């Protein structure tokens, strides 16, 4: 859909201004004809965008709930006299606190971005820049939240079990890399398609590379 819209904008640039809104024998303007001919494609694009945003929003919500609850159930427990965490001065506790906060902020950001996609008007202009950029930023925020959640999870294990068998937290931290790698591997085709259609293919219509003169 993006390529078709880019072609429409490029053709519009070389048309006489008086022809842009000139109706044909059926009293239909070029813009109305374009929307009519590609109405089914617009519906498919809207349906795909909503399904993708809805699925990612569910994941972001689950991450936000998990890291929010983890912020109030700190590893190692609290000091009964002071009420502060027992391992507050430990470096791993600082890593846990920062990564947990970053996971909460990034997951909440991705939720808001995907919510904006779901409530978008889905006009044909939105498919040019607005929707692709929102989806890219939403996926990046989701990816950051997953990384931060895994770092928070690993640091919590180091705080709790490091004084016992040291290979246990190291092994658990190594396993935490698996979801991150899997997310990159599974979502790479989607990222590549969005970036390629939005930026690489869009560069064909720049003045220096314009295909229509």
Textual characterization of the structure:
With 213 residues, the chain is an all-alpha fold. It has helices spanning 2-14, 17-20, 30-37, 39-71, 91-118, 130-161, 167-175, 177-200. The protein is elongated. The chain starts with a helix and ends in a 13-residue tail after the last helix. Residues 209-213 have low confidence and may be disordered.
Q: Which short descriptors sum up this protein?
A:
213 residues, mainly alpha, elongated, disordered C terminus
Content-based structural category: mainly alpha
- Please report the distance between the alpha carbons of the first and last residues: 23 Å
Average residue-wise pLDDT: 76
Written as H for each helix and E for each strand, in order along the chain, the element string is HHHHHHHH
* Rg value: 24 Å
Shape: elongated
């Amino acid at each position: 859909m993006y390529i078709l819209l880019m072609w429409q904008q490029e053709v519009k640039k070389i048309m006489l201004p008086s022809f842009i809104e000139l109706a044909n024998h059926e009293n239909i303007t070029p813009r109305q004809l374009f929307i009519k001919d590609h109405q089914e494609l617009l519906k498919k694009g809207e349906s795909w965008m909503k399904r993708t945003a809805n699925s990612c929003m569910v994941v972001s919500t689950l991450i936000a709930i998990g890291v929010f609850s983890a912020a109030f159930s700190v590893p190692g427990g609290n000091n009964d006299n002071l009420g502060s965490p027992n391992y507050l001065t430990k470096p791993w506790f600082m890593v846990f606190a920062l990564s947990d906060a970053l996971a909460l902020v990034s997951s909440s950001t991705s939720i808001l971005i995907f919510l904006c996609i779901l409530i978008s008007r889905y006009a044909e202009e939105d498919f040019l820049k607005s929707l692709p950029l929102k989806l890219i930023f939403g996926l990046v925020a989701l990816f950051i939240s997953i990384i931060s959640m895994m770092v928070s999870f690993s640091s919590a294990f180091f705080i709790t079990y490091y004084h016992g068998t040291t290979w246990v937290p190291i092994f658990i931290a190594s396993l935490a890399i698996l979801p991150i790698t899997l997310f990159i591997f599974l979502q790479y085709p989607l990222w590549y398609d969005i970036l390629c259609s939005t930026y690489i293919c869009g560069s064909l219509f720049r003045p220096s590379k314009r295909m229509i003169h």
